[in-house]
Specification:
With about 425 residues, the chain is mostly beta strands. Helix content is about 10%, strand content about 40%. The N terminus and C terminus are likely disordered. Keywords: Glycoprotein, Repeat, Signal.
Length: about 425
């Protein structure tokens, strides 16, 4: 069984003394080279598009994506095999990039939308919606597979008869832990919670629940876990803008609540997407209105202090862009999806690259090719400098909204990579030591 040591919540709030020599060295290099204080635009290489070998209209391949270790997985929400719209997950080797296998629903007559994916390189978590004309069970299901051979480990089980799994986007793998959304019906009305399992065997460990439940629900819109810390997004509730909750993922103890500075816009949807990287949290708010209704924004927070570090807004933001619909850390960069970003052919979408230190926009990625795309950037997953972007509304010879996904690599500008990495190490050392 995997053993995990959770962080000391008191240690999370303490700051550690950094080396004076290291700080002076970093500052002196930046002073001598002021252009290095902000990272130059990196080179972004398209490794390959991903298209399923078999598919049809409205499959929505690219609905979800995940990358970890040698495994890339892409969910196809409405793929049909034995039953209409049961879903499927397409798995690829990441290096070299090659198709490996299709994972089909375990019980297709009971499952629908078998397409929500997460991976940490060792395990693969797949959620199914349990909906559809051929399925009598309205609740959701979740399954753990070995990422290498794709053998089923187990189906995740609720810890109590009053708890039902809910496949609503909040699922994550990391630190030997699997997190999946649920509702507790013990009090009669559903209370959204997040369940934590050992990802090696599916054993239930603990429950994540806000110490003060949001007044109007919304807890569990998104989730991520890294180094024993879990973050869960809540897009509505007592916080009009939404909120993101930090937990010790092993003990279930709530550590902090992150909320955006400023606006009280009641359709902000802060917490719609989340990710963790080092001592930073990245949170999407696609309903923000800085550049018009639902133009969107994203936020960087210091996980240790709970302080907002940067608010990120697209340089070319427009109403309906839905900037913040997906977020991910890729090395030293923050990736923000804008699935509704428009062009002359419609809302094809885009992905923006930001410097996590300065908060500056460095690049924008748009899909290439002759086939119309819709929703590019609705899902993003990253490991290191490699990332996968889903576009489930893509058109290709298989039909309308059959979907697609793209694998990219970010190559930092060599002269600045070392100084940026050094700055990240110094900031992490000055704010948190998790072990």
């Amino acid at each position: 069984m995997t053993t995990n040591r959770g962080p000391n919540p008191h240690a999370l709030k303490s700051r550690h003394r950094i080396s004076a020599l290291g700080l002076l060295a970093c500052l002196s290099v930046l002073a001598a080279n002021p252009a290095m204080a902000t990272a130059p635009s990196p080179h972004i290489e398209l490794i390959s598009p991903l298209w399923p070998s078999a598919g049809s209209s409205l499959d929505r391949f690219g609905f979800s994506t995940a990358i970890g270790g040698q495994t890339i997985s892409v969910g196809s929400r409405f793929s049909s095999n034995q039953f209409q719209g049961e879903g499927a997950v397409f798995v690829y080797d990441s290096d070299p990039l090659a198709f490996r296998q299709v994972v089909l629903p375990v019980s297709p007559e009971e499952e629908g939308h078998f397409a929500s994916v997460a991976t940490d390189g060792a395990s693969l978590l797949i959620g199914a919606g349990g909906r559809g004309p051929n399925r009598n069970d309205p609740s959701s299901k979740a399954f753990l597979f070995e990422a290498g051979n794709l053998q089923l480990i187990t189906e995740l089980q609720p810890p109590a008869p009053t708890v039902e799994l809910r496949n609503r986007g909040a699922h994550a793998l990391g630190s030997g832990l699997a997190i999946f959304g649920a509702e507790d019906m013990a009090l009669g009305s559903p209370v959204p919670i997040q369940l934590v399992y050992d990802s090696s065997n599916g054993d239930y460990l603990t429950t994540l629940s806000p110490s003060t439940p949001p007044e109007y629900g919304g807890f569990g819109a998104s989730a991520a876990v890294d180094d024993g810390i879990a973050i869960v997004g809540s897009t509505t509730g007592g916080y009009l803008n939404g909120a993101a909750y930090l937990f010790d993922a092993v003990t279930g103890q709530q550590l902090d609540v992150l909320t955006p500075d400023g606006s009280g816009f009641d359709r902000y949807r802060f917490g719609y997407s989340v990710d963790l990287g080092g001592n930073l949290a990245l949170i999407g708010a696609p309903g923000d209105d800085d550049n018009g209704e639902a133009s969107g924004s994203a936020y960087l927070f210091d996980v240790t202090t709970g302080e907002q570090v940067h608010k990120l807004i697209a340089n070319d933001g427009l109403p309906g862009s839905f900037f913040g619909s997906a977020v991910a850390f890729a090395g030293q960069y923050a990736l923000i999806g804008a699935s509704g970003q428009g062009s002359s052919s419609g809302p094809e979408g885009g992905v923006y690259v930001f410097d996590t230190i300065s908060g500056e926009q460095l690049a924008k990625i748009t899909p290439n090719g002759n086939s119309p795309l819709l929703g590019f950037g609705e899902s993003i997953s990253a490991e290191g400098n490699t990332f996968v972007v889903g576009a489930s509304g893509a058109f290709d010879p298989r039909g309308i909204r059959s979907g697609g996904a793209y694998v990219y690599r970010i190559i930092p500008e060599p002269a600045s990579a070392a100084i940026i990495g050094f700055a990240l190490v110094i900031r992490a050392a000055s704010t948190r030591r998790r072990h």
